TrEMBL record:
Ranges of residues in domain Fumarylacetoacetase-like C-terminal: 26-229
Coiled-coil blocks: none
Keyword NADP on entry: no
Keywords: Hydrolase, Metal-binding
Name of the protein in question: FAA hydrolase family protein
PANTHER family: ACYLPYRUVASE, FLUTATHIONE S-TRANSFERASE
Gene Ontology MF term list: acetylpyruvate hydrolase activity; metal ion binding
Length: 230
């Protein structure tokens, strides 16, 4: 095949213990913790909804290192959202929730960075809010830990501190739609592929960061993700 210019390099995330996981697509679940739904003005267990980020929004941060993101353009209200990320290893369509763990390759700690002011403006206008979610460097992520090492993650603390001050704190057991249910719902709408990443939602406490801030997120069993805003 002859390309008119060189193709972009593949996007990959480091794997704990060595190697890299190639990224296919990034799916994100909206308002998937009840306390976060409340702080965003919603209540109850509404049907799950999804949005996407481009694969090259990934900022891969190796274990023990500090990643960096640039403060994005067009916003004055950049928010942090700490999330458990699920990496799909075996694709499929119409996957039953009971079978979902067989399709998981591993887990990682991720940040769904959000230009909240732009997102809110698009919501008011009834327009898509990709500009608030799918911008450059909006998906920092730590190493993927194989499910073979962690077992299925059903409970465990998920936290985020900014400059050493705790801002977000929750537990995976409080997901409105569990990881397995999310995979079931997603695979009814899209054919999941190896390398798909699912950002599973964030607990309450989202808030703004500015240049110079350092975010440190953690999920029990997966270690920490440290990211500084330039």
């Amino acid at each position: 095949m002859s390309f008119v210019f060189p193709p972009s390099a593949p996007v990959a995330v480091p794997v704990a213990g060595g190697g890299s996981l190639p990224v296919h697509r990034i799916y994100c679940v909206g308002r998937n913790y009840a306390d976060h739904a409340v702080e965003m003005g919603f209540t109850g267990r509404e049907p799950p909804f999804f949005f996407m980020k481009p694969a090259d929004a990934i900022v891969a941060v190796p274990d023990g290192e500090t990643g960096h993101i640039d403060y994005p353009t067009l916003t004055a209200n950049l928010h942090h959202e700490i999330e458990l990320v699920v990496a799909i290893g075996t694709g499929g369509r119409n996957i039953a929730a009971a079978d979902a763990p067989k399709h998981i390759w591993g887990y990682a700690v991720g940040l769904d960075m959000t230009r909240r002011d732009l997102q809110n403006e698009m919501k008011k206008q009834g327009r898509p809010w990709c500009i608030g979610k799918a911008f450059d460097q909006s998906a920092p992520i730590g190493p993927v830990v194989p499910i073979a090492s962690t077992g299925e993650l059903l409970t465990g603390a998920i936290t985020l501190a900014v400059n050493g001050t705790l801002k977000q704190q929750g537990d995976l057991k409080d997901l409105i739609w569990s990881v397995n249910e999310t995979i079931e719902q997603l695979s009814a709408a899209w054919t999941l592929q190896p390398g798909d990443l699912i950002f599973t939602g964030t607990p309450a406490g989202v808030g703004a960061v500015v240049r110079g801030d350092v975010m440190e997120g953690a999920v029990a069993g997966l270690g920490t993700l440290k990211v500084a805003v330039r």
